[in-house]
Amino acid sequence: MRRPRTMRPNIVTEAGLPTRVNQWWENIPFFTSAVVIVCGAIYFVCLLVGYDSFSEICFLPSAVVSRFQVYRIYTAILFHGSLLHVLFNMMALVPLGSELERIMGSVRLLYVTILLATSNAIIHVFIALLVAYNPILTNGYLMNECAIGFSGVLFSMIVIETSLSGVQSRSVFGLFNVPAKWYAFFLLVVFQLLMQNVSLLGHLSGIVSGFAYTFGLFNFLIPGTSFYSSIEASSWLSSCVRRPKFIVCTGGNPSGYIPTNTSSYSTTSGIFSGNIWRNLSSLMPQREVSTQPQSVEDSRFPGRGRTLAAAQGQNASGFHPDSNLQARLLEDNSPNHLSDPAILSTRHPVDNVATTGAAVPHHEGAVVSEEEIKKLIAMGFDRTQVEVALAAADGDLNVAVEILMSQQG
Asked: What residues have CB less than 8 Å from 221, skipping those under 6 apart?
């Protein structure tokens, strides 16, 4: 007689701390993790060699103006004065930078970071000069203030992320809620009250720069997608692009920049041309393509990122091949086209498209208000196209925006 085989019990074990840390690190995109490594390495090297005099590399308005030491604009953001300084800044960068990088792509976020650092410095110098040489009350303190740290860029990112989220209020450390548009200013006041040696002007310049970016004042400086794609295709960057954590530009927001409040009639020229309505469309929550299944998508950070680890031929927008119905819908400018039984019978597949690992809410039978239609028209779409797209999407604004954007691409 055969002895019954002993069954091994099902043992469920939790991942250890090293595994959790490794998983957390692997989920941080390429550029964001690179900034964390560079800033951390610079701090520890300075700690080992005993370098604690930052007068040669800090952002000093008097040195920038009188001796034209513009390198200080970029060296200042990489150096930090203490362990808590670099730790807090990098902890704030990881969630902000990761989600913006998934929306914009790694190369684009690098460009935007350089742009924000430069604009922060220009605003910083301008205010310092205005305070030092105004005819009413002069004070030269700001011209000789030595500032270091990545927090100025972080305040710009906070403004941009708040604009992307579309929320009406934000919680300040879980203590109280403030209007979203004043969130960055409340953080500025809190940090000034709780911490010592905090650069008020450096943080304020970051906030102003962030608002200037979201309102489209830097649009003429933002290249189109082809600019970033050409950089990604270059041989000197090929080793970076092949890494799974690298997010290509085509996987991010299809516009050259993220949401602004610029009028749809504004124009740009040359290689920096772009459609303003594509900026406004990013205010709508969008679906994220991920190589790992996720049950819940963070609604605070809408966007679609694609890494090179994804399957080849996968569309970054996540549309099913049958979604070519969009093209047929938008080719016909006649509203009567909606009465076509073939279209009416295939509206649900369009409404049910989904990206890998992201659950998309449906709004079947939703009634679209005239205000929402006008919002899409303000993005630069034709009213007939808007109505057709909304009908095809069963009133889902997110799907309608994606349908309209796919035709413009």
From this structure: 115, 272
